[in-house]
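Q&A log
Question type: sequence-to-structure
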Amino acid sequence: MSCLFCKIIAREIPAAIIAEDAHCLAFRDINPQAPTHVLVIPKEHVPSLNQMTDPALGGRVLAFARDVAKQEGIAERGYRVVLNTNAEAGQTVFHLHAHLLGGREQGWPPG
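Response status: OK
Response body:
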């Protein structure tokens, strides 16, 4: 297994895990871009949104991100969920993941 996030799921690599259920795992980003920056990943390996064939998987990731936002105390003020797909969009780990960002005002447009 060479996928970094699969190794985190398997507990082969340490991470600051803050939430987990049967389908998803959430952990703090090692290079945070906001006061709260959490990665939400499915436990199933899917390289990117382009390869996601089960729409329920996307729903589970988004619902889990919502629940983590509530847990982190940023749901009421506001938060952003970002899915980068492929290199030009900034995806560097090719395992589907959502960035949950909050704790400060978010600018627009992003990027």
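Response note: The mean pLDDT is 96.
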